[in-house]
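Why this split exists: single-chain examples teach little about how molecules sit against one another. For that reason, every record in the complexes split bundles all components of an assembly together and asks for one structure covering all of them. Below is a record exactly as it appears in the raw files.
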Amino acid sequence: MADQVVDIAVVPVAGRGTRLLPMTKSQPKEMLPVGRKPVVQYVVEELVRCGIKRFLFITGPGKTAIENHFDLNPELIQMLRETGKEELLRELAFERAAVDYFYTRQRRQLGLGHAVLCAEPMVDGQPFVVALGDSIIGLQAQSDIVARMIAVFETEKADAVIAFETVPREDVIYYGIAEPEKNWDTNGHFFALKGIIEKPSPETAPSCLAVAARYVFSPVIFTHLKHTKPGKGEEIQLTDAIQRLIESGGKVLGMRLPEGERRFDIGNFESYFRAFVEFALADEEYGEGLREYIKHLMR
Ligand code: G1P
């Protein structure tokens, strides 16, 4: 089989995480623990399993903990060896994944679309994945949706493939929402998009299919991003650039997360708490005991 063409992921992590204050005052939200690992480690591990070899983080002020996390830490390794804690070394195995990390700063907070545009010089005319750094896909990040999106992107010669999940109609106000082409079955392997709109009202939303934090793009998206004016929240929206791409005749496809595979959003306390509890309950060592403890609390 030929090598996968798409092997670079752009991971925007520049958002300030104000909805999670005070936790995020001096710590990036992408470094918050969910079960045993910080959110961003799940994102990287998911993408490595999907064939990604290069990561470009779009960072902002106060995000250096992310760089430190993916760096090799020889002193820590030596200390674990010298103190006979060899078994803990496997917890650091992710440091040695055969991938490259790059970091650049979004120097002005102008929105997600602008953050992705910061990747252009590095992506250098190649197709790429965008994975939002505050969302985990699937329990313990076991999703292979990005690998399947890349396969469809390549075989269909698409300009973009976007992951979607169904949300309750009252929640469409939080997401980019798809308008699928009429004659396409959105339960099929993939579907074509006629339009996409950022955070519509429940009354005007064209569907309940919400963008689920993973995208594959051809570099043509940069041309559209450059011409995208500030939209919702006065920010340059990635969704608006995708709409421009569709209007210019680009082939934009959607894929739904499969049944039983969910997006865990770390952007607010409610969804963060739920994600933490669910991942902790799935922990091989402590999950069962925690389940008993919670049952005891609920009595
Ligand atoms: C962003 C995107 C939105 C998408 C969401 C979750 O919104 O703008 O289209 O549905 O991520 O993937 P945010 O959560 O940054 O407001």
